[in-house]
Amino acid sequence: MNPLKVEKVFKQYGDKTAVNGISFEVSEGEIYGLLGANGAGKTTTMRMVLGLIYPDEGNILYHGKAYSHNQLSNLGYLPEERGLYPKVRVCDQLIYLAQLRGMSKKDAEQSLKKWLDRFEVPEYYSKKVEELSKGNQQKIQFIASVIHSPKIVILDEAFSGLDPVNVELLKSTVKELRDSGTSILFSTHRMEHVEELCRNITILHRSNVVLKGNLKEIKKQFPKERVILNTEKEVTGLERIAGVTSVNRHEYGYEVGIANEASGGEILRRALEQTTITKFEIKEPTLNEIFIKTVGGDSHE
Questions:
Q1: Can you tell me whether residue 178 is helix, strand or coil?
Q2: Neighbours of 122 (CB within 10 A)
Q3: What domains appear along the chain, each with residue ranges and CATH number?
Q4: What pLDDT, on the 0 to 100 scale, is given for residue 141?
Q5: Is 184 within 8 Å of 27 (Cβ atoms)?
Q6: Across-strand partners of 246?
Q7: Is 214 helix (H, G, I), strand (E, B) or coil?
């Protein structure tokens, strides 16, 4: 039995359908990607999973049980809009929030200190939130979502506002949670993070599910349309090869657009006649490319 199961869930606001029959399951120790442009229905879905609003139809099950107040201790949430009180000390806020989730004050204090040590910022324990940088406020907000060791965590734009070093730190932490058995529902606009972290995804578009399943299997459904060619010298004549749709010169060599994979062999042969090749790859589509093809012009904010 999977920890989180969403079954044919609908949500209507007046005459507007916010979510139209979404279904997915998040297994134990999985990061599941929930994707879509703004207004697609992601936030409504996450709010229903959290019990903040209720579906008009369908079921949401947590370890096989319907939502109840008792489920709160099993849920963690990192919202896109941050919600910490700027003038309150980190320890006062997070220990209080953990107690709301069912922890004792002593256990909450120990958990907070463990997490601050994990992020190498033990000195933030008694600081006010407003005294921290935006990136460090994000770390504290993340700790608030996991301090009570929830079994199911919803992360909405978890890495926004972080520099590359802290993005890697938080990503490694999310992977540790996954490896410890936590089920994570992960929503972001950064497709490269989804490719790195998620095994299965659902893409929403205007309240409807337009693509769903295993990411590797989804990629196989889309054609490979690019060749990466790293060369030591210039290569001429690539644009005249049958099936080549574009040739772009880069510092490393060439990115060649192709109509089908069969053109790859001729590109390789032509290049080998003229120079040494240090890399040749017929690239599968990125999730960002798949996303744009699937949802069209509404893919950007």
A1: helix
A2: 13
A3: 4-219 (3.40.50.300), 223-283 (3.30.70)
A4: 93
A5: no
A6: 257
A7: strand
How far, in Å, CA of 293 to CA of 208, rounded? 16
Structure token pair of residue 234: 């210039």
The helix (run of H) or strand (run of E) holding residue 215 is helix 215-220
Q: What is the pLDDT of residue 280?
A: 94
Would you state the pLDDT for residue 272?
94
Q: What is the pLDDT of residue 297?
A: 57
Report the alpha-carbon distance of residue 76 to residue 74 in Å, rounded. Answer: 7
Residues 95, 108: contact at Cβ < 8 Å?
yes
Q: Distance between the two ends of the chain, CA-based, in angstroms?
A: 36
Q: Which residues pair with 31 in a beta bridge?
A: 184
The two beta strands, 200-205 and 208-214, are antiparallel
What is the rounded distance in angstroms from the CA atom of residue 87 to the CA atom of residue 198? 36
| Residue 285 dihedral angles phi and psi, to the nearest 5° | -65, 145
pLDDT of residue 299: 43
Amino acid letter at 21? G
What is the pLDDT at residue 82?
Answer: 75
Side-chain half-sphere CA neighbours of 55 within 13 A: 23
8 A C-beta contact, residue 125 and residue 147: no
Neighbouring-strand partners of residue 213: 201
Which distant-in-sequence residues (6+ apart) come within 8 Å of 201 by Cβ?
32, 33, 34, 35, 194, 211, 212, 213, 215, 218, 287
Question: Which three-class secondary structure state does DSSP give residue 45?
Answer: helix
* Mean pLDDT, the chain cut into blocks of 10 residues (301 residues total): 95 93 96 91 93 94 90 89 89 95 94 94 94 90 95 92 89 96 93 94 94 94 92 92 93 92 92 93 92 71 40
